[in-house]
Design a protein that fits this description.
The protein has 4 helices and 20 strands. The protein starts with 8 loop residues before the first helix and ends with a helix. By secondary structure, it is an alpha+beta fold. It is globular. Strands 4, 8, 10, 16, 17, 18 and 20 form a 7-stranded antiparallel β-sheet that branches. Strands 5-6-7-9-19-12 form a 6-stranded antiparallel β-sheet, with no helix packed on it. A 4-stranded antiparallel β-sheet has the order 11-13-14-15, with no helix packed on it.
Length: 359
């Protein structure tokens, strides 16, 4: 019987080296192949979701505002699940995790009246904003209407419509936002003083974009017990300013983040007025975060006029785009303010990117 020849140590080491080289050469190719397959599956997933959204829109046009160029709807995956268009459990091929059914497909009517569909992957439905004690809500995707001799921005909630003052036409509705470009244009929240008393706690949120071609960057506002509630550029600094009563806490400009007036970017400016004994604390928030140096304690003005966006009680005019306005009859907490800001970004930031491409 022939004896089997055993491998020597040197031969074994040589074999291991060869196998190692094979692994080094093939393993990256395997990883690349897996990545390509995953990416392909994700693209297929996106296409499938967008096709399902198209079928959903076709079957629900009577419930959607998608008729004219510029009309936009954010459709939650959960809506399509409830209507029987999608399975309840959806898995992201990239992460292999269940997809949040609150994420949305963005549907937009183009200039040729065709529709585009884009899965955003974000929570962007208008229904996800904090709703408790929300009294007034203007949304940029709700096109103003002509009502007699007035131009009206309808309140999503149905309480208080906004009137576009000193506007020549609703053509000033520019890419799902209201354009304030001089001529003393502003938005008057008619009757807002009737739903928010001068003694109430209040949260005011304005979503805006500063125009790039203006050096006098400012956003002027007034009403609801405030002589003014402004953001402005002054001597190289960005300042926020609230004036409430002529007798108490008269005037306090405070330095805020310069990013709050950076152009071609959506911002959310929030003023929270909360009770502090017999007085009120006035606190600014910029893009969801507290502006810690912008606070004061004082009394609200007893002259509780309707709120104006883009116009204060003294002089001057704003040059800005207004995307949204929300008015609460309570002081939101920090987490709620941050949540609303994130939804603002999910809803409106894509529009700024689109505008940059078109300009």
């Amino acid at each position: 019987m022939r004896n089997k020849k055993a491998f020597t140590l040197v031969e074994l080491l040589s074999i291991l080296v060869v196998l190692g080289l094979i692994v080094l050469v093939t393993f990256p190719n395997i990883i690349t192949s897996i990545q390509k397959t995953t990416e392909k599956e994700y693209k297929r997933f996106l296409k499938d979701v967008e096709l399902v959204a198209e079928r959903y829109v076709e079957g629900n046009m009577d419930k959607l505002n998608l008729e004219e160029p510029g009309d936009v709807e954010f459709i939650e995956l959960g809506e399509m699940v409830d209507a029987g268009y999608l399975n309840k459990k959806l898995i992201n091929p990239k992460t292999e995790k269940a997809i949040d059914l609150r994420t949305t497909v963005l549907v937009a009517v183009l200039n040729d009246y065709t529709k585009s569909y884009e899965y955003t992957g974000t929570v962007a439905s208008i229904n996800n904003y904090v709703a408790s004690q929300l009294k007034v809500m203007y949304d940029g995707y709700k096109k103003p209407i002509v009502d007699g001799d007035k131009f009206v921005w309808k309140d999503v909630i149905g309480n208080i419509d906004g009137e576009l003052k000193n506007f020549s036409s609703i053509d000033d509705w520019n890419n799902n936002r209201i354009k304030l470009d001089g001529g003393n244009k502003y938005i008057n929240a008619l009757g807002s003083s009737s739903v928010i008393s001068s003694s109430s706690e209040v949260t005011i949120e304005i979503v805006y974009e500063i125009m790039q071609d203006h050096t006098d960057k400012q956003l002027l506002n007034t009403g609801l017990g405030l002589s003014y509630f402004n953001l402005y550029y002054n001597n190289g600094l960005i300042r926020s300013m609230v004036r409430d009563s002529a007798n108490t806490a008269d005037l306090w400009p405070q330095t805020t983040k310069t990013s709050m007036v950076s152009p071609n970017k959506v911002h959310t400016l929030t003023l929270k007025i909360s009770k502090n004994g017999s007085l009120f604390d006035f606190n600014y928030f910029g893009n969801g975060q507290p502006l810690l140096t912008s606070s004061k304690t004082g009394l609200k003005n007893t002259n509780n006029n309707d709120f104006r966006i883009g116009n204060d009680s003294i002089s001057g005019e704003s040059h800005a785009y207004i995307y949204a306005f929300r008015l609460y009859n309570r002081a939101l907490n920090n987490e709620e303010i941050e949540k609303n800001y994130q939804i603002d970004m999910n809803r409106y930031n894509w529009r700024v990117r689109t505008n940059e491409k078109n300009n």
